[in-house]
C-alpha cells in the first residue's frame, strides 16, 4: 500500500546481474505503488559480514573471553555497537517490509548475506528487536539448476538450506 516503508537488503557484487535486475525492478515497482524504498547494497557499502570485535565500541563486557552474542547484546544495551550496525538497525526498525535480495552460490554458500553472519550483525541479537510484525521476503537466485537443490543432490534440499534463515531472521521480523 502507498506510504509503506520498504528496506531492500541487497547482496551481490555485480549490479548487472539477475539479482541486480530483480532489485532494480522491485525498487521501480514499489515506488510506482507509492512506497518509500531504501536499499542497503552490502557490497557497495563494503559492509563487513564477519561478526568481529570491531562491531563493539569501547570496553568489552568480559575481556577474558570474547563471546560475540553476549558482547553484541551488552553493547546494544549501552549504545556501544559500531556505527555501521546502528545505521542498518535503524533502517530495519523504520521499515514496514524487509526484502532480502541475494544469491546462493556453489555448494550452498550464501554469500555475504548469510554465511558471513551479516544477518546476525544487522539484527545484533534477537532480543534487540521486540516482535514488530514486520513483513519479510527472501528473493534469491541460485548458482545451479532446480535439480541441484533437491534431496540427495550435491547442494541438498533447498528447504533445509533456507531453514536457518527462515527460523532465525523471520522470528526477528
From TrEMBL:
GO terms for molecular function: NAD(P)H dehydrogenase (quinone) activity. Keywords: Oxidoreductase. The gene is Nqo2. The keyword Oxidoreductase applies. It comes from the Eukaryota. Belongs to the NAD(P)H dehydrogenase (quinone) family. Residues 5-105 form the Flavodoxin-like fold domain. SUPFAM superfamilies: Flavoproteins (SSF52218). The keyword ATP-binding does not apply. GO terms for cellular component: cytosol. This is NQO2 dehydrogenase. Gene3D superfamilies: 3.40.50.360.
